[in-house]
Amino acid sequence: MAIYKSKHFFASFIILFLSFPIFNGNNLNSAFALSAKVNPVGTNLIVEIAKNKNPAVVFVTSKTKFQPARGKLPQQQSPFRQPGPFGAPSPSPQQPHPGNGSGTGFIIDKEGYILTNNHVVDNADIIKITLQNEKEYEAELIGSDSKTDIALLKIIRQSDDKTSFPYLTMGNSEKVEVGEWVVAIGNPFGLSHTVTTGVVSAKARNIGAGPYDEFIQTDASINPGNSGGPLLNMEGKVIGINTAIYSRTGGNVGIGFTIPINMASDILDELKKDGKVTRGWLGVMVQKITTELAGTFKLIDTHGALVSDVIPNGPAARSGLKRGDIIVKFNGKEILSVENLPKQVAAVEPGKSVKVEIIRDGNKKSLDVTLDIMQEEKQA
Questions:
Q1: Which segment of 48-57, 66-75, 296-305, 344-353 scores lowest on mean pLDDT?
Q2: Does CATH place domain 8-277 in 2.40.10.120?
Q3: Domain 280-373's class?
Q4: How many Cβ atoms are within 10 Å of 72's Cβ, its own excluded?
Q5: Distances (CA, A) of 114 to 62, 82, 137, 151
C-alpha cells in the first residue's frame, strides 16, 4: 500500500542518515514503565555502561567495487531523493571510484551476529568490522531489510577460531519513556567507540523515511558514522539503533532518530533464516483523515485511514474495498491513524485472511481480505 506522505518537513533542515563516507578521490557515498528504573545522576553508572558495553560495539567499514560506466551517470540521490548526499548537486564522473564508507554495529550474541543499519552496508562487496581491541574480521551479510533500514551481519571466523564474542542484551523499546536517560555508542566521523549521553526526547516520530517510521528521538549527540550503533538505557540494554539526524550543517544539533529495538527483534529470526523479510500486502493507497475530511465524511473523529485508491486485481480490490472507504480496524486492531495501517498489514503472513472493518457511506461494514506477498517496490 502506498502512502501519501506529508511534504511539510522542516524546510530549513536536512535529514542525514549517519553512515560516514570515507572520501577517496571523487567518491561521494553516504549516514509506560521506564525501560530502566535507574537514575544516573550522582553515580558512576554511565562510566560502568561505557566500560562494560563498549567491547560489544564494532566499527563497520564497507567497500563497493563499482563497474566502469559508459556516458554520464545520474546524480547521486540522498535517502530522501534529493540530489547529492547532503541535498547539493553531485558531480557525474565518467569512471566512478571504488566506494568506501563506515558506520557502527553491535554484537548481539557470542557467535558474532551483528545488527547495523542497512544503509551502512547496502550494495557492499566487502564488509569489515573492527572490535574495540582493534582486532579486525571480515563479515558476511546474512540479511537486510531496506524498509526498516536494518541489516544483520555475522563475523567470519577461521575454523580454529573459538572466540566467544562480547554481546549486548536487547531491551524492550515499548517501555521507553520520554525523559529517561540514554547512552549512545558509535564511531562518529571515524572516531572509534565514542560515548555520548542524553535523554529520550520523543517517541513514535514519523520523519518520512519509510512506511514503518516509529523513531525514538534523542538529544544524545550522534553524527555521521553513528549509523547502526546502539542506544542504551541505564541498565545497559539496547533500546534502539541510531539511524538519522536533523541538521543544518551535517553535524549534530540535538535531534537524532533511533529505530526501536523491538522493530529489529521482530524480524531478526526471519533475517537469519531467509535473509529478507516477507510481509503482507493489501493493495490500497491511503491518506490521513484531516479535520476537514472528517467533517465531509461525517465522522466523529479523525481516526482511521482513508482509501484514496485501490490497486486493480490486488487483495483489497478482490475483497470489494472501494475508494472512499475508511479503514477503522484491521485484523482486530484499531487503526488510529494512517501510519498504523502499513505496520498492521505488514505484520500479517501473506495468504492469511483477515477481517477489515470499514466505514462506507456512514455505515460500518466488515470485509474478509486475503493478503498477497508484498513486493520490494511496494509500500504496504
A1: 66-75
A2: yes
A3: mainly beta
A4: 9
A5: 14, 30, 12, 8
Q: Give the active site residues.
A: 119, 149, 227
Q: Is 271 helix (H, G, I), strand (E, B) or coil?
A: helix
Does the pLDDT value for residue 88 go beyond 50? no
Cell of 114: 551483528
Calculate the alpha carbon distances from 144 to 50, 270, 357 in Å. 28, 10, 33
Give the three-class secondary structure for 74.
Answer: coil
Q: Helix or strand or coil: residue 54? A: helix
Residue 198 burial class via C-beta count within 10 angstroms: exposed 0-12, middle 13-18, buried 19 and up: middle
Segments in the chain forming alpha helices (H) = 45-53, 118-121, 261-274, 291-296, 315-319, 340-346
Q: Average pLDDT, stretch 344-354?
A: 92
Cβ-Cβ contacts under 8 Å for 197 (sequence gap 6 or more): 40, 46, 181, 182, 183, 184, 220
Phi, psi of 82 (to 5 degrees): -100, 145
Nearest to 217 by CA among 190, 185, 184, 178: 178
